[in-house]
């Protein structure tokens, strides 16, 4: 895959990445809480959808998406998958001049592009 700095990102692309990144971060917190009460199968199914959406937004290869999907079904490893995917989204956003805080991108920065 080409580096995120080498890819031309549109405003719509960056808005989608920022939106899905925020969702992934909330899902990361939900998954962490759910793992302590035994709801990991339910959160794994939810994770699949949002992993797919963010992976498509950051233009991951099919092989990388398959790896993330498999990781979504492994307790605690799924948290690492979400964190890794979040890191990829952060790299894309930061390389395009968008500030990224603890809970994702600053939507004002994305809107200003």
From TrEMBL:
Record keywords: Membrane, Transmembrane, Transmembrane helix
Origin superkingdom: Bacteria
TM region positions: 24-50, 65-85
Name of the protein: Uncharacterized protein
